[in-house]
Design brief:
Structural class: alpha/beta
Distance between the termini: 30 Å
CATH class: Alpha Beta
Number of helices: 11
Helix content: 25-40%
Oligomer: single chain
Largest sheet: 8 strands, mixed
Number of strands: 8
Number of domains: 1
CATH topology: Rossmann fold
């Protein structure tokens, strides 16, 4: 049975990443904070399948670990992170703020074939923001009607993107970006108690096809991944809920717990939370009721990187 008493609504989670990412892990962020608070402060937070990077961004901006290592095999996604945490972040912000988004201008950017890291990053940002579900893998289509009939403007929020990128760039000294194979990187951190590894691979175990459709690099040796996870000191994995994944977790001595989350369309979905020890994942206490006379009338200031705009 899923943990239905602790369902996270992703629409209510602070957004730090500039990406709209298929399979994003906004729902995991409250649990991420709880997990890291329950253990000794990590020297290093490792996200070997970084993708949209919501976990890494949270750890970096909220100072939940001494350092963050983001690993991404897709050169386009890695280029975005390298620019944000590198010397060209201001130039990317300027490009975003001055770009006139139209179906024609978006199509021209997407049709380009850039070779330099900055231009690859720019193309990726545009394609991600104007594509259905943020999918940049082959076959992903561009928004035509979009939200409220706005088409490509539906998810193009220049000021919000600029604010997020600037906030992340300010934390650049705490972040390392690697374009590399996740499994190879994991092998370098086995049995290290100072490392917290959050592993969110493409969901292709058990013949599931969604991961193949959503990501360019979706082929993965899941058995090898579980073998490596079993040799990490404190791994936490998220997977789709299926019998093959459960069997792999049991085979390698890992706990598996079904978790319910509510996506941006308010659909409740189940995933698996996996780790060596999951006692830290306890239900949230309901908020205490506050009398009307004691309620604050002033709204707390919103952190620079947080926005109520959709992801």
């Amino acid at each position: 049975m899923s943990d239905m008493g602790n369902v996270v609504n992703v629409a209510q989670v602070s957004q730090y990443s500039p990406f709209r990412y298929p399979g994003g892990k906004s729902w995991f962020i409250p649990r991420l904070r709880k997990w890291l608070a329950a253990r000794e402060r990590p020297r290093l937070f490792l996200e070997p399948f970084a993708g949209g990077g919501s976990a890494s961004c949270t750890v970096a901006l909220e100072g939940l670990a001494d350092h963050v290592v983001m690993v991404e095999l897709d050169h386009r996604v890695a280029a975005v992170w390298r620019v944000i945490f590198g010397e060209d972040a201001d130039a990317l912000v300027e490009r975003i703020l001055t770009f006139e988004m139209t179906p024609e201008s978006a199509a021209a950017v997407i049709a380009s074939d850039p070779q330099e890291t900055f231009e690859i990053a720019w193309r990726t940002v545009v394609q991600n923001r104007v594509s259905h579900g943020g999918i940049i893998a082959p076959g992903g289509g561009v928004l035509k009607r979009g939200e409220g009939g706005k088409g490509v403007l539906s998810r193009w929020y220049p000021e919000t993107l600029a604010r997020r990128i600037r906030a992340l760039h300010a934390a650049r000294h705490r972040v390392t970006v690697l374009q590399a194979d996740a499994l190879e990187i994991l092998e370098g951190y086995l049995y290290d108690p100072t490392v917290a590894a959050f592993i969110d691979p493409p969901y292709t175990a058990g013949g599931k096809k969604a991961g193949s459709r959503l990501y360019t690099h979706s082929t993965l040796d899941h058995e090898r991944l579980f073998a490596l996870a079993a040799e990490l000191d404190d791994p936490v994995l998220t997977y789709d809920l299926n019998s093959e994944v459960r069997a792999l977790a049991e085979r390698f001595g890992l706990q598996a717990k079904p978790i319910s989350m509510k996506n941006a369309h308010h659909t409740v979905m189940d995933e698996l939370l996996i780790g060596k020890e999951l006692a830290w994942d306890t239900p949230e206490e309901p908020p205490a009721k506050t009398s009307r006379s004691r309620r604050r009338t002033a709204k707390e200031p919103t952190p620079a990187a947080v926005t109520s705009s959709p992801g």
